[in-house]
Amino acid sequence: MVEDTVARLQRPNSRVTDDPLLEVLRSGARRMLQQVIEAEVEAFLGAHAELEDAHGRRGVVRNGHAPEREIQSGIGPIAVRRPKLRDRGDDTDSERIRFTSKVLPPFLRRTKNVEELLPWLYLKGISTGQFEEALAALLGPDAPGLPASTVHRLVASWQRRDLGIRRYVYLWADGVYFTRRLDHDRQCIRVLIGADADGRKELLAIEDGYRESTNALPKSVHGKAKKDLYAIYQAESRAERWRKSRNSLTSATPIREGSLSTD
């Protein structure tokens, strides 16, 4: 009997976490990343090998590892532990030697290709209903399994939330395009952001679409602007306000501070 050792690739209707080849790639990437970081540390220690403290000991030494963290990559999450170094110099010295990895900066949480994939995965989950696959790609194989019905319910509840208790003095409505395509159409993410009198910004609406224009904005956004966002007023001059009103969300004309009129 011949044993089949070929790793099966993911089927279109299978879960992301069921792909053994992907797990092998992640495991290899994890080892390689750790080796590269360790090589960086050794090179850094070698560059400061001549430094000594007041007792004649090496001035820069290893000091364990930082807690393990996961880096979101195009092949899924990769766990890594960053080595820590210690400068044995005077604690009052403001020019203490610190090691910063060029490969793994302190606050890096995802690779650049994931930045490009995020909007595509969002649209894929919204348009095809494959929320579990999108969540697994975004959050890793241990992402909680949320059925499509639960996601739809949570999204609908968020879209119907009452915004009347807040005062928004400024609105930004824009369509964000990205390089990746879903099927043959280049979709965009339409976003509505409001700012209150204290300058705090809040995401008011986000939905998928194919272009950014007043007519293409989703109905949920129109409902918010016409019913809930009654405390919006523009801060520009009258001439600039009228010039922008042609492409504004609701062609709103502020009558006075705290009021909104829609044509």
How would you describe the overall organization of this protein?
The protein has 263 residues and is an alpha+beta fold. The chain folds into 3 domains: 16-110, no CATH class; 113-153, no CATH class; 161-262, no CATH class. It has 6 helices and 9 strands, in the order αββββαααβββααββ. The strands form 4 sheets. A 3-stranded antiparallel sheet has the order 5-6-7, with helices on both faces. A hairpin with a 2-residue loop joins strand 2 (69-73) and strand 3 (76-80).
Can you give the mean pLDDT? 66
Strand content: 15-25%
Main sheet attributes: strand count, strand direction, barrel closure: 3 strands, antiparallel
Q: Which parts are unreliable, with pLDDT below 50 for 5 consecutive residues or more?
A: 1-17, 226-238, 244-263
Number of helices: 6
Secondary structural class: alpha+beta
Number of strands: 9
Helix content: 25-40%
Series of secondary-structure elements, N-terminal to C-terminal: HEEEEHHHEEEHHEE
Number of domains: 3
Question: Can you describe this structure in just a few lines?
Answer:
This protein is an alpha+beta fold.
